[in-house]
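Re: folding output
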Amino acid sequence: MHIRPRSHDDLQQLVEVLWRTHDQDGYPAHWPNDPASWLTPPGHLAAWTARTSDAGVVGHVGLAAPDPVAPPLVTRLVVHPDHRGRGIADALLVTAEAAAGTAAAVPTLRLDVTEETPGAWRLYERRGWRLTHRSPADWTKPDGTVPTMRWYEKHLR
């Protein structure tokens, strides 16, 4: 597996990875009208892809700063369902954390995840992320329910 900065050429394969993740796990909860653009959220700072020699692009993670007075967010972390359990999510997080840690003004990162995805939040906790609070999401799932979000933070220095 190889992690590298995301390129425009990665987007079509990433949309396929995202579709498989949405189909299997319901992430994102609502399929975006423009999934390639969804991978670049407001305040986008950087993004990386995980590639394998046999499958091409199998994962993605980004950093975004949608709120200029709050720490940046790790965002759009997704790993193709057929390639999970191989350390890809860990490697993507290491890359995002390292990149943010080299920026003088970024001592802390944040992320959020739904309460109903214990595999994801266990990954973050295992990697040293600290749960700061839970709150209702500012969006609804397709069935109209409002999920509970778990907010995490990691101090990089």
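--- second protein (sequence, then structure) ---
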Amino acid sequence: MIEILPETRNNMLAVRISDELTVDDFDQYRNLLRDLMQRYKEAHLFYEMVNVDWVQPVAAIENGMFDVIHGLDYGRVAMVGEKKWQEWAAKLISPVKKKGVRYFDLAEREQAMKWVQEGE
């Protein structure tokens, strides 16, 4: 399931993924992000994962392809999670994004949000 967080504004998309990431969830996320990328020079992303048990393989592949195609349109990207595989996923996708991906543990959520909003 995908939830658009209230911190979403201007050129920043903030989402929370929970339970299972489906193709429909990814389509919604991708359309919002693509819209930001068309309106702004770069789009910042806050991506939080809580209790994510499964990512549908097609959604994962589509997400990877979107990242490769639009990697230079990303600004700061924070990935917040609670499992080791999520940290590995952040490291795996980091090279295709212009400024990489910074991973934060769920306990560091506020720090991650501040970094995405304000930078260093």
